[in-house]
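[SOLVED] Need 3D model of a four-part complex

Original post:
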Amino acid sequence: MNDTKLIDIASALGISVTTVSKALKGYTDISKATRARVIEMAETMNYIPNSVAVNLRTNETKTIGVIIPATVHHFFSSVLNGILEEAEKRGYLVIILQSNEKYELEKKQLALLIQKRVDGVLMSLSNETDDFTHINEAIRKNTPVVLFDKIAKRVDCSKVVINDAKAAYDAVTYLINKGYKKIAHFRGSYVPQNSIDRFLGYKRALEAHGIEYDSKLVYVCDNNTDFEDGYENAQKIMTENPDIDAIFAITDLVAIGIIKYFNEAGIKTPEQVAVFGFSNWFMSTVISPKLTTIDQPGFEMGHQAVSLLIDEIMDIKEHRPVTHQIIELPTRIIERESTVK
Amino acid sequence: MNDTKLIDIASALGISVTTVSKALKGYTDISKATRARVIEMAETMNYIPNSVAVNLRTNETKTIGVIIPATVHHFFSSVLNGILEEAEKRGYLVIILQSNEKYELEKKQLALLIQKRVDGVLMSLSNETDDFTHINEAIRKNTPVVLFDKIAKRVDCSKVVINDAKAAYDAVTYLINKGYKKIAHFRGSYVPQNSIDRFLGYKRALEAHGIEYDSKLVYVCDNNTDFEDGYENAQKIMTENPDIDAIFAITDLVAIGIIKYFNEAGIKTPEQVAVFGFSNWFMSTVISPKLTTIDQPGFEMGHQAVSLLIDEIMDIKEHRPVTHQIIELPTRIIERESTVK
DNA sequence: TTTAAAATCGAAAACGTTTTCGAAAAGACC
DNA sequence: GGTCTTTTCGAAAACGTTTTCGATTTTAAA
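Solution:
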């Protein structure tokens, strides 16, 4: 170990630690001559400042925390990528925690991050989360939080999102314009805002185009880790409502499950039933037929979230007033085989 | 902010910070009575210890660093999962860095982690890395390192790996036993140990079964982020060596590229050419035909790596002699459609 | 009651920096 | 040479803990 510290440089040079510290940090009240000597000595002694001591003194850790529901999803992987890249660029390290879609875990992890004195935290809510006091508490304690993707509208903080309702609206409108008439929706569970908004988009698109909304055509897929849900509900809907001609799925994963079932059951996609996904996972180009879907800019989302967070950290540090922003990233339809006859 | 500190509790109770600290940490030289008073006051004042101060004093951060080449790959996502879960269970936080397969970045990031005083680091080498002094340097400075998956044999530290050569040998042997005679190999680039070992396994399996190794049947796929490489080389091999009847691919991603090309070109899999992947990515069950592959236990690998690392951290802390272990995780063949006629 | 042992507490040093403030030295000016 | 300004440096406090060691008080033993 034997790390060299300021005092080692100081005694090697016969000067004080104060002078060494100032020389290294570029203070102007140190002569060019001694500054040069200090820098050289620091170099040869291979000095590396002890970040922990610096953190204690300066009261900042140059570290941000990230809480995401899961990493296995391709979408969150790309968000993570964006986060890591931007954080590194701005000189921050990132601590990652995974809530596994559990509210209790999410709460505990947020407390952990605050205890670790991270300068700010980025989070995407778990599916269970419908109480936001832990987040408000964090903000109240001056740890800035920015929410991304799975957010809560009622929390007053910066956010970066897509317009789920609009994206869903666009998707369903696209299907209607393509001539599909009886469009089902495989939705997510009832708590997450995404799930609600995509459902609303679906419903509004139908109504806006004179198609009556039928709650019997809405199936719930609340398992996020597997495509079984899509598979099973596809099976179910084809016995209960065999005359549908399209399904708008909340997620590519669900859509993949649907297509898998259709392929096995000999149901032609899109000839008999078209399938529309959501997120543009890598997988969606792999399956046959290739999946039409909504592109959700994960990488960009990670970038923006970090940017917003660090800006806010700076504002707090400089005692500037903080203003919360909501960035809405554009989505677009990626048309592939699963919807074009 | 207004965090409550030890001194706040102390002055509220009219006692010293020493006593407060000891009471909270369960020292036996504090009376039951005052301990109770302290604990209660700490509770009501919502005391949270300042980790940075604790870190400085105790000289440990309860944080480990992880450097991986990329997160987008499904395999690394599951390793990450295993890491996060085990680290949380053992009370450690994890800082993640991504080298993007660049040696220089990997080196810089390792230095960063050491400067941040992480208690240890987990890493999987970049494809470019063929100099290991940065790792040896870290170990010399008493920051334990454990390597996983993409390792360097010449570095003296704990490792958790699969036996790439054996897994590849098994895969090719499987193909031979299935009756395939002219088996090509799409290998990775020349530096990474994985790539080398899988190639060696391929070669040895051929030789062990009396099939002459032909270097013309080996194609290099060194792009890890896309399946284009597999796609293009598949196209190439079918003009240069149209009589092959199987391909052993270094990665599921490459295999997917091959199958995509075959599907488009009307080449039947596995009837004309069988395809064998490696890693058992989620994707491999999505493509049609479903891909036969080697299951690589990523989650378990993450678990074990963290376990090894924390054990070593403890050994160093307690001044016990450290012993380096190499854990070899079992792989197995997952037979699916792409190799069974 | 005296003495020894046990129980309970606190002063102070330490971890390695950063930064304020004052002191000393050097230079400028008359 | 004396005064004033500028340059250059260092002592010391501070960040919030942990832990050693000694001091004081209480209890037990005789």
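Edit: Chain B is about 45% helix and 15% strand.
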